[in-house]
Amino acid sequence: MFKSIIISIFIMLSFGLSAQDIEWMTMNEALEQQDKKPKKIMLFVYAEWCHNCHKMNEKTFVNTDVAKYVNDNFYAVNFNGEGTEKVNYKGFEYTNPNYDPNRKGRNYQHFFADALQVTAYPTIVFFDENGEIISPVMGYKSAEDLEIYLKMVATDDYKSVTTAKAWQDYQQNFKPEFKVN
Fold first, then answer.
1. Residue 13 placed within a domain
2. Please, which residues bridge with residue 92 across strands?
3. Structural domain boundaries enclosing 117
4. Are 25 and 37 in contact (CB under 8 A)?
5. Distance between CA 154 and CA 149 in Å, rounded?
6. Distance from C-alpha of 175 to C-alpha of 13, rounded to nearest angstrom
7. Kind and range of the H or E element at 44?
8. pLDDT beyond 50 at 141
9. How many alpha carbons lie under 13 Å from residue 46 in its C-beta half-sphere?
10. What is the tally of structural domains in the chain?
11. Which of 35, 43, 66, 139 could serve as a FRET partner for 147 with CA atoms 20 to 30 Å apart?
12. What is the pLDDT of residue 17?
């Protein structure tokens, strides 16, 4: 019995040590890193009250394959679309002057989220190596759902997927590889 408990603890610790977390940063940090080492940005726009945002943090972003792929191919940004972080983007400082710290639930949307035309939470916005917007992806995505977008952006395949038919073909030919945790 004691031996079984020890083995179980060892196995649980082994899995815990092999887990990989996404290396989140601010948008300003990601843009600074792009100047040093060009890499695409994956911006996760969330709101505190958003159930599906929390679900993505608890299920999607903890997936080992997702975390490794994101860390290898993107600067990952976790951005509160209703928060107070100052963002310096393309020569403009974006803020949220209407933020009300006493307000419960929904708050005022950050000007940066407005500029990105975020209309729903969660939204993932991809940027190229020069900080130019590639595309937003709205709504909850499981690890399996997110894989196609991550790989399409990271490999620049998005440049040739310019029609509904091209997207349909891309989806049909896509071979998912991420394991479900």
1. no
2. 89
3. 19-173
4. no
5. 8
6. 32
7. strand 40-46
8. yes
9. 17
10. 1
11. 35
12. 39
Q: Is residue 120 part of a domain?
A: yes
Q: How far apart are CA 181 and CA 61, in angstroms?
A: 11
Backbone dihedral angles phi then psi of residue 29, each to the nearest 5 degrees: -65, -40
Helix or strand or coil: residue 100?
A: coil
Q: Is residue 25 part of a domain?
A: yes
Give the domain CATH number at 69.
3.40.30.10
Q: State yes or no: pLDDT of 5 exceeds 50.
A: no
Query: Is residue 41 in some structural domain?
Result: yes
Which among 161, 149, 153 has a CA at the least distance from the CA of 133? Answer: 153
135 strand-pairing partners: 126
Contact call for residues 67 and 23 (beta carbons, < 8 A): no
Token pair of 178, please?
A: 């991420």
List helix spans (H) across 19-63: 27-36, 51-55
Are the beta carbons of 60 and 69 closer than 8 angstroms? no
Residue 75 one-letter amino acid: Y
User: How far is Cα 26 from Cα 21, in angstroms, rounded to an integer?
Assistant: 16
* Start-to-end CA span in the chain (Å): 28
Nearest to residue 42, comparing CAs of 87, 17, 75, 12? 75
How many residues are present in the chain?
181
DSSP secondary structure letter of residue 108 = P
pLDDT tens per residue, range 101-116: 999 889 999 999 999 9
